[in-house]
Specification:
- It is a single chain.
- By secondary structure, this protein is α/β, with parallel strands linked by helices.
- Helix content is about 40%, strand content about 15%.
- It contains 10 helices and 9 strands.
- Strands 1, 2, 3, 4, 5, 6, 7, 8 and 9 form a 9-stranded mixed β-sheet that branches.
- Helix 9 links the parallel strand 8 and strand 9.
């Protein structure tokens, strides 16, 4: 049960998505399918008025729970971070341990998270080693029944848009999953970039199975991705 509360189990996403599946299936279409992160270059950003990026990590920048960027995204990602006209946040469906690890891998990028506790949404932010929640506060809130809010969720996107401060019209979600990254972006009123999943062999069997099902549903409803 604790793994569900903390988001450590990949089953948590399934539990949260299943009751809303019919609605989410109608929101699986991304604004853009791009062949690689390198295609998200300065010309693409300027022509589409993009000034803020919400990043997924596992499958988009790294393998599953891996601690280093995949080689093919290293330079494109670092180039985007160096762009003074862009703002960035990370929004990942990760467990608590992975959340802390991501803060170490990407210390310069705000890492955002939310929890539901007794009908209230509580927000958490980590940047450059500083967490808005202490370890004691986290343990106390989890003990009280706080549950991690996972993508897809419009409130998470709203939180990211507020953090970026450039407006929803200038924000894009970059991820590798239709039912979490793309559907979440559509729910939150921002555009989305869908990339192919990186290092698929690193993912747990349950995640790989869900990815196959997700792609099959997309093809059934919308045809081949293009």
């Amino acid at each position: 049960m604790r793994s569900l509360a903390t988001g450590a189990s990949s089953f948590t996403t399934f539990v949260q998505v299943l009751p809303r599946l019919p609605s989410l299936l109608a929101r699986m279409r991304p604004t853009w399918h791009l062949p690689s992160l390198a295609a998200l270059d300065e010309q693409f950003l300027r022509s589409n008025g993009i000034r803020g990026i919400i990043w997924d990590v596992d499958g988009t920048l790294t393998g599953d729970r891996c601690s280093t960027l995949e080689p093919q995204v290293e330079e494109p990602f670092r180039s985007l971070l160096r762009n003074p006209e862009l703002r960035h946040v990370i929004l990942s469906n990760s467990g608590e341990e992975r959340f802390r690890q991501l803060g170490e891998i990407f210390p310069e990028v705000p890492l955002l998270r939310a929890y539901r506790l007794r009908g209230e949404v509580l927000y958490r932010r980590r940047l450059d080693g500083t967490d808005t929640w202490s370890a004691e506060e986290l343990e106390s809130r989890l003990a009280q029944g706080a549950m991690v809010v996972r993508k897809p969720d419009a409130q998470l996107i709203d939180y990211c848009v507020r953090e970026l401060g450039v407006g929803a019209d200038a924000t894009v979600m970059v991820g590798d999953q239709y039912l979490t990254d793309v559907a979440g972006a559509n729910l939150g009123g921002v555009r989305s970039v869908k990339l192919a999943t990186l290092a698929p062999d690193t993912f747990r069997r349950t995640v790989r199975f869900s990815q196959v099902v997700e792609l099959g549903l997309y093809r059934l409803l919308y045809g081949a991705p293009r």
